[in-house]
Amino acid sequence: MLGRAAVVDGIGGYVPPELVTNDDLAQRLDTSDAWIRSRTGIAERYVVSPGTATSDLAVEAGLRALKSAGDGRVDAVVLATTTPDQPCPGTAPQVAARLGLGQVAAFDVAAVCSGFLYGLAAASGLIAANIADRVLLIAADAFTTIVNPADRTTAVIFADGAGAVVLRAGAASEAGALGPLVLGSDGELSHLIEVPAGGSRQRSAGPPADPDDQYFRMLGRDTYRHAVERMTSASTQAAELAGWRLDDIDRFAAHQANARILTSVAERLAVPAERQLSNIEQVGNTGAASIPLLLAQAASDGRLRAGHRVLLTAFGGGLSWGATTLVWPEVHSV
Fold this sequence. Notes:
Elements: E1 5-14, E2 18-21, H1 22-26, H2 33-40, E3 44-47, H3 54-69, E4 76-80, H4 92-98, E5 105-109, H5 115-128, E6 134-142, H6 152-155, E7 160-170, E8 182-185, E9 193-194, H7 200-205, E10 217-218, H8 220-241, E11 251-254, H9 259-269, E12 276-277, H10 280-283, H11 290-301, E13 309-316, E14 320-327
Parallel strand pairs: 4-5, 4-6, 11-12, 11-13
Antiparallel strand pairs: 1-7, 2-3, 6-7, 8-14, 9-10, 13-14
């Protein structure tokens, strides 16, 4: 752990104002509040209004993280998202411009719900290589724009939101310094989580895409099994590399996929309920945004405090997964 480390210096989160409850969804889908709660743990979620894009969410979260850090200067912007404003160009440069950050380096990271962990790796690399002293990492998804509104299996789960952190160069011994990052992928199982149409493979095939292929799809049972296995394994590795025992963990912040997955992973890691951070009941699955949004909310309401040893883990399409650790610093969520 020599050289420059990436240290959390600010954090912010944002969800759009439009609230959708389970009862709202039951008015147009063959479902009910009880059915949704029992299978996902979700009661309500926030969704974008017509005309609102991922960049709009990202800018709001970015502003809050910069304010939290008390310093609006950064050398790079990394945006983790599955729902860019358009296929080309990347969305990060537009976000940087709208934030008034000048002509800084800016690029997107695509790792679906693992995007924040992969974004942490990218931002840490920029800092470790002396390319940047300060990096704004934003994870934002307008996931409801790619979910079939008539698909009960996905429409009740996914929601929209953004979370952001400012990372600065510092020492590995500081509070807020990221611990070792564990990342992995398995492209042989990419079909478990996908949007089949819209890319070069479908477009080069010639015939127009089936309308249903333009929406997100997920094979739930297989995804559940791999999510539990991969997040458990990655979490165990990250704790070991940091020199922590699992019972050293004060707060466990996992990607808010669904309540059943969260419970299964926590049980395997023997993390008691009072140490688990969760907001899935109130905001649903917000894709790449879920972990930083959760951290921002927990820091704001007091569930996450300076000195807490925190374990982060995520799983998403690719398949992709990751985990890392940090001791929470004295930062205030905005």
